[in-house]
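ok trying this again, last paste got cut off
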Amino acid sequence: YQFVSVVLADTEDIWQKVFQTIDQWYREPTLVIYSQRVNTRCGAGDARMGPFYCPADEKIYIDLSFYDELASQFEAPGDFAQAYVIAHEVGHHVQNLLGISSQVAAKRGQPDYNEYSVRLELQADYLAGLWARKNQRYLESGDIEEAMRAANQIGDDAIQKRMQGKVVPHAFTHGTSEQRMRWFQRGMEIATMEGADTFVQRYEDL
């Protein structure tokens, strides 16, 4: 709990500065720690969903047992892997403040909604990478590898193969392991809001 609170505070410092560069005000999200189930303005939350962000109440929800799964089931242990998870959800908060989330939500029910969902998730990975770049003075050797390992293990293809024994691309909602690692890395390398162009590129080129 102390660790995720410190990570969240650090994201606030960095995103306040980034938002100043685009002449916007950063409104801080709220972190909610829960166990097993929780009620949100986005509906009922369940620990099996993993960490999630609710745009309606601007809160990040996490059952801390997820970190045990990240280490054991997903083979992605380490403090920075845990920090990446928080940074990704904060990325969704940034998208919400900028009006991107509502634009994607408006696509719900359309045939290409899953593609927009993937674009949204990869952009959140980019934003997590941007945060990591701005946060480098705190990084230790091997930290980025921890985050990349986590991104690799929670790609749609990796999860589908683990759960179903096969990969179903048309059902992707978050992007492949390779895509998630690449956009996180891109966020670290470019580290500007202009680089978060997942909605500009052709879907096949993501």
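PB: full thing came through this time. The chain is about 50% helix and 10% strand.
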